[in-house]
Amino acid sequence: MNQGEKTDNNQGWLKVIGSTRPISFFLKSYAMFILLCDIVYFLTYLVASIFQAILNFIRPPKLKSLKGEIAVIIGASRGVGRELAIKLAEQGTVPVCLDINHIDNQTLVKDIRKMGHEAFGYTCDVTSKDQVEHVIDAIDRDVGDISMYFHCCGVPSPRSLVSEPPPIQVTMDVSIVSHFYLLDQILPKMKKLKYGHIVLLTSVAGLSCIKTQLPLAVAQFAVQGLFESLVEDLRMSKCQDLIQISLIHIYPFIVSENLENDIRLRIPSYFGTIRAEHAALQILRGVRRNQMEISIPTYYFYIGNILRMLPKNATYLLREMLDTGVDFG
Fold first, then answer.
1. Facing residues of 274 across strands?
2. How many angstroms separate the CA atoms of 78 and 229, rounded?
3. N or C: which end of the chain has fewer CB within 10 A?
4. What is the model's pLDDT at position 32?
5. Displacement of CA 143 from its chain's centroid (Å)
C-alpha cells in the first residue's frame, strides 16, 4: 500500500467517525429527553398522590361492603382476633376461625352462630406446614374460596411481654414462619381469582425493642418486611389493584382488657386504653377503606413516622419520657 492509498483510507475513517457524531448526539439527546419525561411524570404523580392522601385524610373513602366475603382469622380464640371474627360476622362475612386452642375456638364459633351468623372453626397449628395445607384444603372444600386473610396470632398480650419470653424458635415460627406456610396456600388462589385482602397484624415490639424480648422484636420487625415484600410482589405481578394488603400496628399495652390490673404505665393519662372490641372496629374501618397501614391507636401511626425523621438521640430521649415502665401493678 502506497502513501496515497493510506491517505485515502485515513480520510475515509475520518468521514465515518465524523458521520457518527450527529447520531451519538441524537441518541444522547433522546435519552435525556426520556429521562426528563420520567422525572416530570414522577413529580406529577408524587404531587397527585400527596394531594390524594390529604383529600382522603379530610374526607375518607366510603367503606366497602364485606358481605359474602370468606375471611380466615388466624389466632381467633382470644383478644383482637376474637373480636375481629365477631365483627366480621356482623358485617355479613363468613368468619373461618383458626386456632391451636380447640376449646376456645369452638366456643367462639358457637357464640357467633347463636347470634344468627354463619361461622366455621378449625383447629390448626400454623407452625406445621402439613397441618396448614390440610386445613386450607378443608376450608376450600367445606366453605369456599378464601377472600380475606387476617393473621393475628403473632401479636403478644401485655402480660406475655413482661413475663419470661418463649423459646426463640417458637417465637419465629409463630410470628413469621407461619405467614409463609399460610400465604403459600392462600395467595396463589387469590391471584387466580384476581381478588382478595390480606391483613397482617404486628406489635409495637417491632418498632421499639422491649427488655428481654429481642427475638419477639426481630420477629415483629420481620412482619413489616414481609408486608413490604408482598406489596412489591403484588406490584410486579400486576395484582396491586386486585388484591389489597393492610398492615396493622397494634400497641398491646393500650389494647388490653385488664390493663389496669396487669401493667403499670409511666404516664397513664397520656396512653389511655382501648378495649379489644373497639380496636377490632378501628381495624375493620381501615380495612374497609383499603388503607395500607393502620395503627391502633390511630394517632400512633403519625407519631411513628415523625419519630423516624428525628435524630437518634432525640428518639431515645422521647422513648425514655414515654416509656411504659412495664411492671406488674
1. 255
2. 28
3. N
4. 82
5. 25
In whole angstroms, give the CA distance from residue 303 to residue 308.
Answer: 9
What are the grid coordinates assigned to 131, written together?
Answer: 397441618
Q: Determine contact, residues 44/117, Cβ cutoff 8 Å.
A: no
Question: Which of 156, 189, 169 minimizes the C-alpha distance to 72?
Answer: 189
pTM above 0.85, yes or no: no
Residue labelled with grid coordinates 423459646: 167
Strand order in the sheet with 293-296: 120-123, 94-99, 70-74, 148-151, 196-203, 243-250, 293-296
pLDDT tens, 229-269? 999 999 998 888 899 999 988 875 555 554 444 444 454 44
C-alpha cell at 165: 419470653
Tell how strand 120-123 and strand 94-99 pair up.
parallel
Distance CA(245)–CA(272), nearest Å, equals 29
| Cα–Cα distance, 129 to 126 (Å, whole number) | 7
209: amino acid identity, one letter: C
Residue of 124, 149, 142 whose CA lies nearest to 245? 149
Which amino acid appears at position 180 of this protein? F
Among residues 211, 97, 184, 196, the alpha carbon closest in space to that of 146 is found at 196
